[in-house]
Amino acid sequence: MIEPTNRWKTMLGMFIAERTPKCHDVTRLISQAMERPLPWRVRLAIWIHFRICLWCERYRDQLAFIGKALRSCPEHGAERTGLSSAARARFIASGGIEVSKIGIIPGAG
Question: Smallest Cα–Cα separation from 57: which of 34, 30, 39, 32?
């Protein structure tokens, strides 16, 4: 038989798990949060999910560590901004196709 305190913890964990995003969704949202700010409701749902899921919280910490490590080493590509205007012009002149011309970037070109 389950101890009463353990039973209530289990029930509370299940209640929270049913009302927050699944781990798969949380990991995707954690990655998105590194690129852009998330709405407060989404941040709250993630925070609540962290109360019951140590693994997603560890994933967030690992991504933060990797991001910090990459920012501290700009010589290894963390500061890449793409092609310069001159390099882009040479590429197009050599027969390369500009991405915005083939419809990959909506509204461009």
Answer: 30
